[in-house]
Each structure stands twice: as structure tokens, then as C-alpha cells.
Amino acid sequence: MSGAPNAAPAAGTPRELYGETLFVRDTPERQRLRLLGEVFDPYSTKALTEIGVHPGTRCLEIGAGGGSMARWLCGQATSSVVVATDLDVSALEAGRRANLLPMVHDVTRDTFPDESFDLVHARFVLNHLPERDQVLKRVVRWLRPGGVLMVESFSWFPLDSSPNAAYRKAMLRWGDLVRDTIGTDSRWARNYPASLGPYGLRGLGAKTFTQHIRGGSELARFWRLTVDMSKQQLLDKGYLSAAEYEDFTKSTEDPDFWDLAPALTQAWGRK
Prior knowledge:
By secondary structure, the protein is an alpha/beta fold.
């Protein structure tokens, strides 16, 4: 890699798809998804409760991951089938609800009939897709009139002012890596909810939550596992040195370490 040591590579055309070498559904990734649910489900379920999910609501969960949100939706929609999609739906079989329909589905290519759902929920999905604008157009068509789309993504802005150099650099470099590898835009959610307006959604709303991250906490473990899945790429491609990576790891395990995690941004709109 040319240029200054550890300089972030310039953004280029992504060469891989989600799940090829990043976010591979192995044992550490399943652990990471479990932590993701424990840390972020309370925010997601609160927002969806306020939006309204009730018996008979026809729900689509895009990028169901570990399945915690799909199972929660099943408990709310009860008499209606909840369709839960992902490139790998193996995690959805454990504790499967009777009204849960897992489906292997690539949201960038596969489709559903127009006006199929009352609610579409996509958490930490669209920010990873270079085709996110085209996907949004299609997803809105799957909503019935009056149906709601809710999207959730991380907003990277709390990292920019972090006083902890090792934490700040590792997180920002990880963001550069996933951008350059699969096309993730970790700053796209900063445009919520205006980014939903061009697709025919009205009644737009948004909330952003900033969380304090403490070394050794579940939130710190989640982010350490998230960065750790890319350790070899980060080191081999020069995004971080081994010493910088070790400093980051030590921070996330040190109970005296405090900072802000990437913010969680939610946005919704009604068709």
C-alpha cells in the first residue's frame, strides 16, 4: 500500500459482497449478532411500539441477522405472518415462532409483490449497500398505502471528536475498510429522515441516540467484536498497525475507559 503509513485508502469501487470476508456468519459473528440484539433491541422495539405493531400487521424484517427483532415482531403481529429475510437465515430456526417465515432473499436483487406489507423494518442494512437508493425505491413499492418503513443505521459523527486517539483511529479506520471493501457508508444516516422523502414517504420522523461506551461493557464488547472480525484485513492492508490495534483492544476492555459510541439513528415514514 502506497502513501503515508496507516493512511486511510481512498474510497474506491467495492470488490466484495456483504458476507464474503466481512460479516461472515461464523461463531464470532453469531456472538456479535447476539450482543447487537441485547444492546440495540430496546431502542428498536420502543420505536416500533410507538409506530404501532398489532395483531394482523403484515411485517417484513429485512436483514434479520440473529432474529431477535423478527421474533419480537411475531409476538406483536400474532395473527399475521412475519417475513424475515437475510442472505443466511440459519439463526432464525432457533426458537422459531409459528408465524415466522424465514426467507433467503437478497434485497438488492430479489423482490416482493407491490403493496405486500404494512410495516418494513431494516436495521443496519441499507448503510452497507452501495445500491441503497435503488433498494429504497423498491422497498417503498412493497408497502401498502398507509404502511410504514423504519430504517436504522449508525451515525459516525461522535467518533470525530473523540479525545481517545487509539479508539478514534481504530473505529474510523474500520469504517474506511468496510467502505472500501463492500461499500458501507457509515455517515449516510446523518441525512435521516430527509433521505427518505424522495421515495414518496410522508410523515417523516427521526431520533438519534448517543450512548456512552465503557471498557468491559456489553456495548464495548459489541464494538470490539465488530472491529475484530476485520483484524487481519485491517493489519494486512495497512489501515492499522499491530500496536494501534492492541491499544484499541485494551481500551475496550479497560473499565476506566469512557467515550461515545457511534450514534444510533432511526428514521421512518408512511406511504
